[in-house]
Design a protein that fits this description.
By secondary structure, this protein is an alpha/beta fold. It has one domain: 3-Layer(aba) Sandwich (Rossmann fold). It has 10 helices and 13 strands. A 6-stranded parallel β-sheet has the order 2-1-3-4-5-10, sandwiched between helices. A 3-stranded mixed β-sheet has the order 11-8-13. The longest helix has 21 residues. It is globular, with a radius of gyration of 19 Å.
């Protein structure tokens, strides 16, 4: 199976390429942002994947509108050639959140005009007989555009203060977990599973953005101490943006499990794996002691 992925430097694109390097049954080909009918004819993909904007609510409106225009143009080409389209989109479209986990059939109704444009594009995507819409929790990864974790580590290592919301509750989502899940879904569809539609995927355990950043800082400090390093990491500054009631943005991922048998992954375990890999790359001469708990955590996070 061959899939075309837009935005070659996006963290999801990089994660998908890393997955394909370990397999022989799927190939991910990347192009720049624009993929017109001529490009589709040249690549002849079995599916086209569009990575998400990291946080459309904080992007410049021009960026959001440009993304929507590209998806709309791409959709026309995919429908004309009967190529499946996979559109990944941030859970930030649920601008007001919800008290309970948000189901797939709940249509986002943002107040922001630019984000409403994305919702309108989503309605167009749903008219394509062969489409997948993936709503994702905030992605974190070690490399690529919009990776969050890499940017957070770099800021902390430079000693910069990091501002994070204490009253925004989300489910941080490993980009590698998304890549593995999306690969599994595409291969099942290639094998005859006609289960098009909208799916949610996020990490387990809702936490505030501030708590996630605090866990990253603590685990990073622990690993640095383990290799004999003690840099002065940047401090965290908590922000309160939603008055007295925290805004919860938690996705219900049950449909992905029921239809494709794909479980959510613990963001804490996935984060530990990424920080281990970061430390090993930065300090390759250090002999890390790998105890049984660490090894079991790696195996569980990897799904082995």
């Amino acid at each position: 199976m061959k899939c075309l992925v837009l935005q070659a430097e996006h963290c999801l694109s990089r994660a998908l390429h890393a997955i394909s390097m370990q397999r022989g049954d799927i190939e991910y080909v990347s192009l720049p942002d624009v993929a017109d009918a001529e490009a589709l004819a040249m690549v002849e993909p079995d599916a086209v994947i569009v990575p998400p904007l990291a946080d459309p609510g904080r992007c410049e409106p021009a960026v959001v509108y440009a993304h929507a225009d590209r998806v709309e143009a791409l959709l026309e080409s995919c429908r004309a050639r009967q190529i499946p389209l996979v559109w990944c989109v941030s859970d930030a479209l649920y601008e007001d959140g919800a008290d309970a986990p948000i189901d797939e059939d709940v249509l986002p109704r943002p107040r922001d005009e630019a984000m409403r444009r994305l919702v309108a594009v989503g309605e167009l995507v749903r008219r394509h007989p062969r489409h997948l819409i993936w709503r994702l929790g905030p992605l974190f990864g070690r490399e690529g555009d919009d990776a969050w974790l890499s940017e957070l580590i770099d800021s902390l290592m430079r000693g910069e203060s990091v501002r994070a919301a204490r009253d925004l509750v989300v489910c941080p989502t490993s980009v590698m977990a998304v890549a593995r899940a999306l690969t599994g879904v595409l291969l099942q569809i290639e094998s005859g599973a006609s289960a098009w539609g909208t799916y949610h995927l996020c990490g387990t355990e809702p936490v505030s953005v501030f708590t996630f950043c605090s866990v990253v800082r603590t685990q990073l400090e622990t690993r640095l101490a383990g290799v004999g390093e003690s840099p002065t990491l940047g401090r965290l500054e908590g922000l309160d943006q939603h008055h007295d009631t925290p805004l919860r943005r938690v996705l219900n991922c049950r449909r992905l499990l029921d239809v494709f048998g794909i479980h959510q992954k613990s963001w804490r375990l996935e984060l530990g794996l990424m920080l281990d890999a970061w430390c090993q790359e930065r300090y390759p001469d250090h002999d890390e002691v790998d105890n049984g708990d660490q090894r079991r955590s790696r195996e569980e996070a990897a799904g082995t």
